[in-house]
């Protein structure tokens, strides 16, 4: 992915860090032909400018026991969209919440232990005041996933 506000070296640093965030500054320096100090300064600048938002890990949900990945389109009343989004954000099953264009609805991703767990959660969604409709689809296969980039 090309970023307009970055030079080639910064793009390379981001690429390598997104593939392996545990790379040392010395290892990164060897990969991009810079000194360890120059890499450290570039990473510092990327953090200062908010391009690197945070350093984190990517957990494989299947290996961690979350066997079911479901995407929801949740139609809501306009006046309650923020309240509902906050309420959903406070549940451990939800991983991502996006307000979408068009009719008032939220696009939500959640992880569940199994079908029974998902069924209980869907019933809980139906009881939330302001939700007018819930559509769900479960994930069958992942072909490309970028866990290190917020879109």
Task: Provide the fold topology.
Elements: H1 8-19, H2 25-32, H3 36-48, E1 68-76, H4 81-89, E2 94-100, E3 105-112, H5 115-126, E4 131-138
Antiparallel strand pairs: 1-3, 1-4, 2-3
Q: What name goes with the CATH superfamily of the largest domain?
A: Lrp/AsnC effector binding domain/regulation of amino acid metabolism (RAM) domain
**Strand tally:** 4
What is the subunit arrangement here? single chain
Give me the Rg, rounded. 20 Å
Strand order across the largest sheet: 2-3-1-4
CATH fold-level label of the largest domain: Alpha-Beta Plaits
Biggest sheet features: 4 strands, antiparallel
Helix content estimate: 25-40%
The percent range for strand residues is 15-25%
The 3D shape can be described as elongated
Give a description of the structure:
It is a single chain. The chain is 36% helix and 21% strand. It has a four-stranded antiparallel beta sheet. Strand 2 (94-100) and strand 3 form a beta hairpin. It starts with 7 loop residues before the first helix and ends in a 13-residue tail after the last strand. It folds into two domains: 8-48, Arc Repressor Mutant, subunit A (Orthogonal Bundle); 68-138, Lrp/AsnC effector binding domain/regulation of amino acid metabolism (RAM) domain (Alpha-Beta Plaits), CATH 3.30.70. It is α+β, with helices and mostly antiparallel strands and 151 residues long.
């Amino acid at each position: 992915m090309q970023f307009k506000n970055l030079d080639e070296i910064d793009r390379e640093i981001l690429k390598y860090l997104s593939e392996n965030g545990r790379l040392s500054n010395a290892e990164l320096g060897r990969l991009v032909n810079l000194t360890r100090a120059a890499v450290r300064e570039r990473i510092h600048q990327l953090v200062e400018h908010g391009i690197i938002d945070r350093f984190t890990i990517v957990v494989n949900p299947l290996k961690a026991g979350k066997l079911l990945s479901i995407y929801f389109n949740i139609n809501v009343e306009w006046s309650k969209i923020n309240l509902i989004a906050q309420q959903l954000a406070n549940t451990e099953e939800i991983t991502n919440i996006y307000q979408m264009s068009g009719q008032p609805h939220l696009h939500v991703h959640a992880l569940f232990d199994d079908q029974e767990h998902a069924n209980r959660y869907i019933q809980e969604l139906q009881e939330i005041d302001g939700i007018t409709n819930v559509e769900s689809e479960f994930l069958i296969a992942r072909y490309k996933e970028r866990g290190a980039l917020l879109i």
